[in-house]
Amino acid sequence: MIYLVIGLFVAMAVGAFLRQQSKHSASQPESQESVNAESLDLPDDDNDNNDNGDNIIDGDESDDSGFILSAKPVTDPDRVSGATYSSHAPAGEDSPYGLSSEPKKQAQAKSNLLRWCGRAGNIQASNIVVPGPVAYWSNGEAATNEPSCIDVTLPVAFPQKGDTLPADGAESYASMTDIQRGIYLTWLAGARIQPPLHMCYPAIWLYGIERRTIVDKLDLGMCINEAFRLLPLLRWEALRDNLVNFITWLAIKVWLPDEDLMSMCKKMNSVPEGLLDILLNSYTKSMLPLPSAVAFTVVRTCSKLHREGEPQIPHSNEALQKFTPIYKELCKGGLILLKPESVLKISYTPSNPSISLGKKDSEAVEIPDFFADLSIFKNLVDSWEVFLTSVKPPETPPDLADIAGRPDFEGFINKLRPEGSELPLMATLGDLAKVMKFNTSSSGKLTGKERKAIVDTAQVEGWQVIPDLGISGREYKWDDKILFTELAPGTQLSQSYRVASFILEFTCASIAADEDRVFEPLRRRMNDYFALTEDDNIRLEAQKPLNLPTQYGPDYYGEFLCSWLSEDERKSVKGLILHAVSFMPEFGENPEVNSILCEVMKLRESEEPTPADLAKTAHDWGNEVLNLMTLLFKSN
Fold first, then answer.
1. What is the pLDDT of residues 9-28, one digit of tens each?
2. 3-state class of 490 per DSSP?
3. Averaged pLDDT for residues 230-236
4. What is the number of other CB atoms lying within 10 angstroms of the CB of residue 207?
């Protein structure tokens, strides 16, 4: 009897299962697999998709979930038209990815999806490859109306020498002229470190940042950092103010961690008050003294706490170490902040015309306004003023005899520069010695006094000498080539620039660089390691004639470093250079570069990188090398 009951139970279960399978098969189109692959123009190679960790997912049977697609950054420019997809992006009414319980119909309607390419990917449009554009793109007109979308099928043209650049702007990438697209893509390909030619270019790029953060709600931290990095390049007050508002509003919405805020603020000479308010707010809850690094960053970057005409001090560990004891003494161990009564209300309206915020998203956010009453910072400001007197060299009256007899630099430069040329003047130290009436016959090398006289005189006349003549222990010969670039009188070259210039010079010598295609990526790469301004980048670009090729081999630089740096410090320099060239296949995968660096800096080649070295970011390498090389540069 028991066996009969069991048999009946099994038969009923199998029957129910078969009926359910039949119902499920009837609800799914037979051509579902072909829709996913063909209508979305996806690669046919399943293994290739699996290698990238992405899959096309089918819609669920339930009504509250369905077919969701999101774009993965394209890492191979040859596969732009065959991008892969994943299921990580949220979908909504304004999402480019769509949400439907009918996968086949949805896929056919939105075959040209809006796709995202972040810092790790490339976009190829026409014959230009844009690395890490942080922008949307499509292969044809996208189904979603997004003005920042780079349609790779649209024509692109590039201005030729002598062409007049367009003075007009555009409202979207699609409405740009062919020349405007070429200018825009070239600016993106240059890592957005040069001032844009027209306001429309950064405005259109920022449309994409707004959509990525507000609509997709993805890459918030990265987008804040990229937008923050653009701030110093904007000369249009309205656009700059809107960007400051966006960064502050978004940072409050996601409550950006203190370490991320500090990382951004360290790189800027002026930081919006709203971001500093966020940074300070957490210390009102702890009731602990404001850490020296935070106090230094706040007083250094807040314009309200500065007197007119004060020099701008870039962030460095050396400056922080000088500031800390002064701050601790005058603030009695550290500034303790109380939560202010006044608040700062910040709301944001997207500039992207295709985005509309919901009621909840558009509500104003409030943060404590620490800068409404500046009296709370009195002791901190006093500490800063004492600190400035300690780092500012005493002013000495000029020697009238030296001024009367100084060389005519303008005449010297006009004499040696080819007629009509605006290129940087290239000469030798021996050429300059004749103008300055130095005796070059006694020795082939310059003395420290002669180098200082050249630098001081050039600065008075409004010129900078490249390479840096203020590196302690480095040999300079009268037949060394030098460049003259214009330098506003009184300008102080930052330590970040001076170290970056030397590292770029040494790197070019180590890999025997002799082409612009090698120099330019390396020059841009220096921004990942050091806090460089727009002017610093212009100076680095100007030294290209001296570095392609360099005057000396890598052994010249290695010998100098061996005499001044310890073995561990030389390892740090080697590590940064290998990190800098690692993204260039012809050098990054070539063990010969490591061998050359080890040989010239007298390091053991067999040593493997430590786990700590492998975990370092570009910023970590830059800080480490900056701190150990700063002492090699004398103040001009």
1. 545 554 555 455 444 444 43
2. coil
3. 82
4. 25
Which amino acid belongs to residue 92? G
What's the pLDDT tens digit per position in 180-192? Answer: 999 999 899 888 8
**Residues constituting the chain:** 636
Q: Find out whether the peptide bond into 549 is cis, omega within 30 degrees of 0.
A: yes
463/407 Cα distance (integer angstroms): 13
Rounded to two decimals, the pTM is 0.46
Give the closest residue to 466 by CA, choosing from 510, 508, 503, 502: 502
Residues 335, 305 contacting (CB under 8 angstroms): no
Residues 6+ apart with CB under 8 A from 429: 446, 454, 476, 477, 478, 479, 480, 482
Pair 539, 501: CB distance under 8 Å: yes
* Dist. CA 251–CA 230, nearest whole Å: 16
Residue type, 236: W
User: How many degrees, rounded to 5, is the angle at CA 492 between CA 489 and CA 498?
Assistant: 130
For 150, the token pair is 């780079």
Residues in contact with 308: Cβ distance below 8 Å, sequence separation at least 6, in sequence order:
none
**Tokens found for residue 423:** 């290129």
Contacting residues for 557 by C-beta, under 8 A, at least 6 apart: 505, 506, 509, 510, 600
Closest C-alpha among 97, 165, 162 to residue 136: 97
Which residues, at least 6 apart from 264, have a Cβ–Cβ distance to it below 8 Å?
A: 224, 225, 228, 271, 275
